[in-house]
Amino acid sequence: MLRRSLLLATSALIAAPILAHAQALSFAPVPFAADDAARRQVLASESVTLDGQVHAIGYHAFARSGDAHGDHRFGALVTRSGATITDAQGHPDLSSSADFTSLIQANGRLYSITHFENRPGAMYLSELAQAPDGTLTMIATAPIDFSGLNGLWVPCAGSVTPWNTHLGSEEYPADARQIAEAQQLSDIDGYAFDMVRYEGIDPASLDLATFRAAYRPYRYGSPIEVTIDEGGTATPVRHHAMGRIAVELASVMPDQRTAYISDDGSNVGLFRFVADRAGDLSAGQLYAARWIQTSAEGAGAATLAWVDLGHADDASVRAAVEAGVGFDDLFDTAAMAEDGTCPAGFLASNAETRAECLRVRDGMDMLASRLETRRYASMMGATTEFRKMEGITYNPEANTLCLAMSEVSKGMEDAASQDRGGRNDIRLEKNGCGAVYALTLDAGYVATALTTLVAGIPAQYGDDTPMAGNTCDIDAIANPDNLTYLPGHDTLIIGEDSGSGHRNDVIWSMNLTSGALTRIFSTPYGAETTSPYWYPDVGGHGYLMAVVQHPYGESDEDQLRDPAEARAYVGYIGPFPALN
Question: d(Cα 344, Cα 189) in Å, to the nearest integer?
């Protein structure tokens, strides 16, 4: 049994920073979008200066959602049979929710894989052509077949593994307890209902029995690895061994065994997976972080301990899921007392934004740890109080991990209501503008401590100013989302997913020595920046991927004038000279 097996990450084997000459790199700044014309555009740095030499760059979208290539339209959502999903009027469902887009070199060709963050989700495999000047053009695209995995659920961010595979995600899995206990369809959060379209079912005609038959919640919510074979076929695998949470992304460390997994939402956790074998994520040990606070200044600081959640492999978990294991097979439940305590034999959980008393049934710890990972981690003593945990990136020079928190709020606040059933480990002042943390790693890539690297600054602007509508300082970050690091250049890239924080979401370049922030990308009304990811050398050129998700779709919908402008942009800032 794994009850309360808390492993303190206090190793004295602290890795020395990698000493490397950081080349001076700076971007031409993009001005704040101060008027209506600027707020409708995609704006990007026009040049980058590297060791005193200026190089022309810019933003290049090699695709917009809905683009036709042969028999396929980029971003069309499909059923299990591969048919395009249509709306009530028979129009194809063309997603504008493009998210992480990778660049993968295989078979002497260049490919990209793009997530579409929907229910059902989609990933598109596209072949790209690279011109001598580095310009990329999409020449073919097609949806990846997920029928062997019973579809894809809300793919969000991602990464590229050290062995050159695409590592995607599945965010916001449904609450399996809610589905198990429902007496009628209205007892269930309707967020999951659209997923039945994958099976060719109209959500408007759902009843409870039909929904339960079509949708098994434990199938979804894990990292997805995609390999491109010699024939150019993309094959996805769902890594149940890495747990089931609201996966923002998983990022594999240079040892090719350790992966950090961020968990989006409220009352969530931070997870670390250690694979049995390098380059193989199908089996391994899972850990969850415990925050031991050392400072409440800014966005806080803490040492980190790691709770061992045990070992599992993909095949064993998937077999149980397909055999129909449910919440009631994993847990007994009991009522929680007003003081947050549980009856004898039960353990408290404050995960899933609810306070619960749970007891793992005999022999079910392995499955509970992988199918109800957040609940199980909370029961075992890990911290499940984080709010809106987002991107991860590794800084090899400092041997640190950078982690974005889009908001410091709710469970992260002191004595917040969502701490009932937990320990109130995180006790901070609210900062709705969010923060980026730096996690110190030891020689084994175990995070031992966490400090605030940069935080957003709440602000108030008058209605009669160009800054009206922004609740975070326009010259600071707001609601940081995805991150990437430029090795050898001391530069962290921070993308935003901001609503009222910044009216127009941007991407920042941050010099880690000086702390200086430079705005390098600005998106249209209602859009989100997704997929900033650095590729230092692809065919002799560097690329900073940048995707514009759902323009006019998250706010300012009333500003849309031409429906074509609501399509997502998938592309890159660059091309750069190769920067190895």
Answer: 31
